[in-house]
Amino acid sequence: MIALQQVTKKYINKTALKDVSITFEAGKITGIVGENGSGKSTTLKLIAGLLQPSSGNVLVDEERAGRRISSKVAYMSELESIYSFFTVGDAVDFYESQFEDFDRSQAEEILTFMNLEHPQKVKHLSKGNRGRLKMTLTLARHAPYILLDEPFSGLDPMVRNSIVKGLIKFIDLDKQALIITTHEIKEIEPILDDVIAIKQGSILGREEVEDLRGNGHSVVDWLEQVYGGGSLEYNSSRTIR
Ligand SMILES: Nc1ncnc2c1ncn2[C@@H]1O[C@H](COP(=O)(O)OP(=O)(O)OP(=O)(O)O)[C@@H](O)[C@H]1O
């Protein structure tokens, strides 16, 4: 389990997260939704151990998040993170050399699924194919926690669709949990177990998607209500886990 306990994260002139307490359970797909600058990436970077909290604790399977436990977390940045002078094959070799849990044969299977080939040069790939490659390299790891920061950003619906299909096919929810930040909630709504709404560094709410559906609502209905202006009649007074 991942636990953020009363976490505040301050940058020099900005408080990005304010006293956030939340958990993420193994075996679930959780979406974190919020407008630009609300603290989504900061949350993932804290879990990945790339940032340290200003106060509070970030625990991954009861250990403090940091370099020592990074093997438990596969983090995909929203930024371009693969050297442009690499070929697709070089990128796979590089990831294999960096991560003990990297599964070469799974990587090859995902490459085929994503229609990517070893000799292709990263700098010549379309944005969509660079997104598919980034996803391939992350999903080829057997890390128990997979964190994807804005995997759909700037990608067209066909590419988004192939990425969602890749997630369903290559994530093993008996052994892995997935946390996705996104603005594109409609694409991933069908595969989400729960959704967290964040605004200006605070968690506004969290819901199980099945509970919402049971009440005849979509995630989008709920988000409209949480962010104000919506008229969803739904009791969402449950405690945030
Ligand atoms: N390294 C940094 N130094 C200073 N401020 C930062 C830094 N990184 C993020 N911030 C600020 O912290 C706040 C939260 O940023 P964060 O990137 O976590 O938001 P986000 O929800 O992921 O946004 P987006 O959807 O645009 O990616 C923003 O106001 C951002 O400008």
TrEMBL record:
Cell division recorded as keyword: no
Domain of life of the organism encoding this protein: Bacteria
Q: SMART domains given for it? A: AAA (SM00382)
**Gene3D superfamilies recorded:** P-loop containing nucleotide triphosphate hydrolases
For this UniProt record, the keywords arranged alphabetically read as follows: ATP-binding, Nucleotide-binding
The record's annotation in PANTHER family points to: ABC TRANSPORTER, ATP-BINDING PROTEIN, SKFA PEPTIDE EXPORT ATP-BINDING PROTEIN SKFE
- UniProt-recorded name of the protein: ABC transporter ATP-binding protein
Lineage per the UniProt record: Bacteria, Bacillati, Bacillota, Bacilli, Bacillales
